[in-house]
Every structure is written in C-alpha cells, then in structure tokens.
From TrEMBL:
Name of the protein in question: Thioredoxin-related transmembrane protein 1-like
Segments forming domain Thioredoxin: 24-135
Composition-biased stretches (Acidic residues): 240-254
Localization, UniProt: Endoplasmic reticulum membrane
Amino acid sequence: MARVYDASRRILIFSFPFIVLLCSTIDFASANKELNENNWKEILEGEWMLEFYAPWCPACNALAPAWKELSTRAAKNSLPLRTAAVDVTNSPGLSGRFVVTALPTIFHVKDGEFRQYKGPRDVESMLTFVENKKWKQTDPIPGWKAPDSLQMSLVAEFFKMSQALRGVHNMLMEAYGLPSWGSYLIFAIATIFVGALVGLILVCVIDFLHPPQKVDKKFISRSELEKLARGDNDGKKSDDEQELINDDILDDAENSPNSDAEKNSPSDTSEDENEKTSEAAGDSKPADKDSSDKPEARKRRPRKAD
C-alpha cells in the first residue's frame, strides 16, 4: 500500500502543473469577468460579449443563468469568446461611457469595435450570432460615440459626478436628518456660487489672453473746440457754405406765400392787367382756370458745385 501511495503521489505532483495550466486556460477562455472603471479596457482586445446589469433588475436576474452558460458553451465549441459583465450601480461611469439606457444591455466587442446585440437573449441565439459572424450585419458604434473616445470619457466623468452628488444628497437626508427641500436648497446655493466663481475665472482668463485695447485720447483746448463748432479754424464760414446758406434763405423767401417777392412778381401783375383788358373789351370767353390757377414754375438758381 505504501508503494501505491507513493506512486500516486508522484503522479499527482508531476501532473499538478499541467492541471493548473489547463484550468487557468479554461478559466481565461470561459469565465465571466466583472468589469469596473479600472479594468474595462481589457475588452478592447479579442472578442467579448458584454452585459450591463443591476442587482435589482428582474430581466437581468432572468438572463443570469443563460449568461453563465454562454461562456461554458463557447469553451466547448472552441470559440475565442469571453464574457464580461458590468454592475451599473457600482460603475456608473461605464454606463455613461456606453450610453446605457435600458437593462440588461448586451454589446459584442471585436478588436475594439463595439456593436449592440439586439437579438434573442438565449444561449443558442447568442452563440449563433458569434459563430456565424452575424455581428458583421450590424453597424458598429461610430467613432465619435465610441466608449474609448475623449468625449465619452467626459460623459463618464459627468456620470460619476452625478452619482457622487446623489450620495451627498442621501447623506444629508439620512445622516443629518435634513428634509429633501433643504438638501435641494443647499445644492441650489452651491450651484449659484460655483457658477459665479467659474464665470469670474473665465473673464479673468479672457482678459489675460485678449486684453482690451486702450484708445488714445486727444486733448484740445476750449478755444479750438469752439472754432471747430463754428466750422472753421478762423471762426469764419467758407465762401461755399455761405453761398449755400444765402441760396436757401432766398428760396425760402420766394416760396413763402406772404413774401414781398410773391406779391410783386411780374407774372401776377401781368395776369391782373390781362383780366382787366378782357373785361373792358367785353370778351365773353372765360379765362382758363387751369392756366390762371396754376402757379408759374420758378427756376432755382444753380448752386456752385462742391
């Protein structure tokens, strides 16, 4: 018995490294991996099926047995497929990075290309989707929306911040006993203060990068200002300006109905004399109303060109 025991022990010791290597390989190929903010970039290499779930989600709990079986069946079929899962309650940044709006959400990842799986959620359908490469019929997520892009990294940070603010809100209500409106009031005041501080910082940065240009002021004496107001440095108007003013005065005087020029105009006196002569001669033809009523057009004196 001792010899049999020694022989079995030697065989076990000799085969132990191979067993460990085999188990580690199978585990690497088929085991479900839990992803978080630190290790999610592992799925950028190789082929993966990724699930987003939450412990309180009934549909996620119903999918859990099929999801575990998927990794086992993939290993039996010698598929280089690995499965991973993300708990959105523990990793809210990843849910924002992948824009997860419903649970459970499944993605197929192949060498850094992301495609959302929208087929049936049973093992056979998901294996067929991978084996027959039906994922090629699905358009990948565009580059601007890719989870590893810069803009989606910013979205992930906003999701993290929202989760942190939610934790502060719960702490204020549970630990300090504040009502919900008191917590909201504190957040409102903090938002106004932070907004004012950020605005002040932006104004200072803009003034530093693009300082306002200084306008050179020209100082003149009061006497020079009065001369400029009168239109000439000598305090006298130019001949052209004076002639224009005189013409305007003359035109106004001629156009006024009560002016002496209108009363003593030669056209009016000639018309009165013609009417008297026609009445004395007994002329029966009445004077043309249009010609008598229509005032004579006057020509304006041409002004000197500027």
